[in-house]
Write a structure and sequence with these properties.
Elements lengths: L7 E2 L5 E9 L2 E8 L5 E3 L1 H13 L7 E5 L2 E5 L2 H6 L8 E7 L2 E6 L1
Antiparallel strand pairs: 1-2, 2-3, 3-4, 5-6, 7-8
Bound molecules: zinc ion.
C-alpha cells in the first residue's frame, strides 16, 4: 500500500496529511486532518470498501476448469476486484466439509 504524497485541504481549513486508515480489518489509503481529526478515504479504496459492503455474504457461482493437471476455479470479476486479487497471487483454500470450502487472501 502506497500513500499519496500530497496533503489534502480539510473542510475545517486545516491540512489533512496522507495516512493509513483501518476500516473493517483493512488497511486503506487516505488522509487525516491534524486539526479536527476528520479522515478522507482514497477514492479507489473507498470504491473497494463499497464493493465489499455490497457483495458481502452474496453467494457467487464459480466454474471449475482444467488447468494442466490441476483444477482452476473461475470467479466473477466483481468478486476478484472486491478482494483485490491479482493474477498469480496465492490464496488460502480450506476444505470445510464434503461440499464446502473457504477461500481467503493471505
Ligand atoms: Zn480538519
Amino acid at each position: 500500500m502506497k500513500l499519496e504524497k500530497d496533503n489534502l485541504k480539510c473542510y475545517c481549513g486545516g491540512s489533512a496529511t496522507p495516512s493509513e486508515i483501518r476500516m473493517e480489518g483493512l488497511k486503506l489509503r487516505g488522509w487525516k486532518c491534524k486539526e479536527c481529526g476528520e479522515t478522507y478515504l482514497h477514492p479507489d479504496d473507498s470504491m473497494r470498501i463499497s464493493a465489499i459492503r455490497k457483495l458481502k455474504s452474496k453467494p457467487f457461482e464459480a466454474t471449475v476448469a482444467k488447468a494442466g493437471n490441476s483444477f482452476a476455479i473461475r470467479i466473477q470479476k466483481e468478486a476478484a476486484v472486491a478482494l483485490a486479487l491479482k493474477i498469480g497471487e496465492k490464496i488460502k483454500f480450506t476444505i470445510e466439509g464434503p461440499k464446502n470450502a473457504n477461500i481467503s487472501t493471505l
